[in-house]
Design brief:
The complex is a heterodimer of chains A (387) and B (198). By secondary structure, chain A is an all-alpha fold. Chain A contains 20 helices and no strands. Classes of the chains: A mainly alpha (387), B alpha+beta (198).
Chain lengths: 387, 198
């Protein structure tokens, strides 16, 4: 793609900067595509109207946490489901970031999310460069996927996906360099961003096992070596720290350290067998979840990409992504498209696969842009599968 | 380098200690009994909504998604999400609350509802009570909506405050019936309801 062009023209001078400039240009293009999509379905468009139109579903909850903090009790009258609802299911780091930015800039949470989230997504792209081993075409395609691709609206509105994406990339880049403490610190932030962030602990364990196996250590020798490696142990203990800190805060605020999990009942979410969740979504599409067949295929697609990660021996990332998807499926297929889209290693491996041939890269790029336009409209209209 | 690494044991102890403390909080929730029963122990399917429950006698309340006069302001507990065909009961009983200018006249409760029935379980009974007084048992035998009525004595109606309770002794789960993994008890899909002078 751009790499081929840059190699054969005077643009070669810009080549060192291209790693920064191409994603930045794609980020701007993404804003333009999404704004045009908004304009195409709006009678009187405006920048604030754009931010508000992009603020759908859980956006309200993140805004609520950013503005008012966590509730002490469930709402007294739920104009929907069987129980009082509360904002405890929405982890604190992203709304804290929005609230902090809101102290500096006076704007609605939706507008702040519309600026902060794309910047976080751009940061995720820039931080991901070491994961591509010098493969520029794959890197640029990954940038296109996130910034001007089919799911870019998730990373451009008041949702925690963009922060999760950035932290996942930073954590895996640190882990690949076997900087376990740094990986653990990013893990802390991950587990304060979304429930599944705590699963990064298994990625650290997998990397440590790979390191020990490369030195042909047996199980007993591995254990002895682990006790001589406080950096690995600290990395492991650091990952759940964000979750435990949130639990301690919830205990203070609500009296229930597991309120973030218990409140799922207000949305009638119960633990189910992940395989059954996929099966019932494919075979019995009626019920509360909208577009369950699409969501089931998204889950299956995500698991196939996990398989590709295993195939490419990217074991820590494969373990992490598989566990994230399986844990998400224990609540059914709802929001599966979003969960798959926000797993950075899956996007990276998809970009690596699609960038194998230049023609496929270009075709993918065009498809990404077209879908960005079309699905942004679907997002604004709150089409069920995108929830 | 080794000394620096050994220094890491201090943060390990601190972090592990805090995490142990935070984990211990799970074992001692400080919540009221209603919250505990509904959200933690899951021994109750009734989350008691707090509402002034305003009502005008004769007003038809709808249980269909998007319809006017939705039942929400009178919702007690035990109701699932409304859909295009109505609202399923949720759990072994449901409640509705009504506050209106009391009149010393007998009233009639009219219910339009379908039921979760099949060949093996052809009927769903609904035991209706108001303010703790049993009014009667209705029977619904079709997935399609049917109209049933129950009389409410004047001595209850004149209070202007009716807490209706619907018990579902034949309620069954979606899991039991096979269409999905839903473990909640379902019995009746309400379409509309009204209380009027007899």
């Amino acid at each position: 793609m751009t790499a081929d062009l840059a190699a054969s023209t005077p643009l070669r001078v810009l080549r060192p900067w291209a790693l920064l400039l191409v994603p930045a240009a794609l980020a701007l293009a993404g804003v333009l595509v999404r704004y045009l999509a908004y304009v195409s379905v709006t009678a009187a468009p405006s920048p604030q109207g754009f931010a508000d139109a992009m603020c759908v579903w859980d956006c309200y909850w993140y805004g609520d946490v950013a503005l008012h903090g966590y509730q002490a009790h469930p709402e007294q009258l739920n104009f929907g489901g069987p129980a009082g609802i509360a904002n405890w299911a929405f982890f604190p780091l992203y709304p804290m970031l929005i609230a902090a930015v809101g102290k500096l800039v006076s704007a609605s949470p939706a507008a702040l999310g519309g600026v902060v989230s794309p910047l976080l997504a751009l940061g995720a792209v820039l931080a991901s460069w070491p994961a591509f081993d010098g493969n520029r075409r794959a890197y640029y395609l990954f940038a296109a996927l996130l910034l001007v691709g089919p799911f870019s609206f998730y990373f451009a509105s008041l949702y925690s996906e963009s922060l999760f994406l950035l932290l996942t990339v930073l954590a895996f880049v640190a882990l690949a360099r076997r900087r376990y403490v740094a990986a653990g610190i990013f893990g802390t932030l991950l587990s304060a961003t979304r429930t599944v962030g705590v699963l990064f602990v298994f990625a650290i364990l997998a990397e440590a096992l790979i390191e020990f196996r490369a030195r042909r250590l047996g199980p007993a020798a591995m254990l002895r070596e682990l006790l001589r490696r406080p950096d690995i142990i600290l990395g492991i203990f650091l990952v759940p720290l964000g979750l435990f800190a949130f639990m301690a805060w919830l205990h203070l605020a609500t009296g229930d350290a597991l309120a973030f999990a218990h409140i799922q009942r207000a949305w009638d979410r119960e633990i189910v067998n992940p395989a059954s969740a996929l099966w019932f979504a494919l075979t019995s599409p009626g019920g509360q979840t909208r577009d369950p067949v699409i969501l089931a295929f998204a889950g299956i697609g995500g698991l196939l990409l996990c398989g590709a990660l295993f195939w490419r021996r990217q074991i820590p990332a494969a373990v992490f992504c598989t566990l994230c998807l399986v844990l998400a499926l224990t609540n059914g297929v709802e929001s599966m498209l979003r969960f798959v889209a926000a797993l950075a290693p899956l996007g990276i491996v998809l970009a690596q696969i699609l960038s194998r041939w230049p023609w496929l890269s270009w075709l993918s790029f065009v498809v990404f842009v077209v879908l960005d336009f079309a699905w942004t409209i679907s997002w604004i209209h709150q089409q069920g599968a995108l929830m | 380098m080794t000394a620096a690494k050994n220094f890491l044991w201090l943060p390990i102890v601190l972090v592990a200690g805090f995490e142990l403390y935070a984990a211990s909080l799970v074992l001692r929730p400080n919540v009221d009994a209603t919250y505990r029963a509904y959200f933690i122990d899951k021994t109750s399917d009734c989350w008691p909504h707090v509402t002034p429950a305003p009502y005008e006698l004769g007003k038809d309340l709808s249980f269909t998604e998007g319809a006017p006069n939705l039942f929400f302001p009178n919702k007690g507990c035990g109701w699932f999400y409304p859909n295009a065909k109505g609202t399923w009961s949720y759990g072994p009983f449901s409640t509705m609350l009504f506050r209106f200018p009391g009149e010393d006249l007998p009233l009639t409760l009219t219910i339009n509802a379908g039921a979760m029935v099949d060949a093996a379980h052809p009927n769903q009974r609904v035991e209706v009570s108001a303010n703790g007084t049993k009014l009667g048992t209705l029977s619904f035998g079709s997935m399609e909506p049917e109209v049933r009525t129950v009389s409410i004595p004047a001595e209850l109606g004149k209070t202007g405050s009716l807490d209706l309770r619907f018990d579902f002794p034949d309620a069954r789960s979606g899991k039991e019936l096979g269409p999905n993994e839903d473990a909640h008890l379902r019995a009746i899909r309400f379409v509309s309801m009204k209380i009027d002078k007899s």
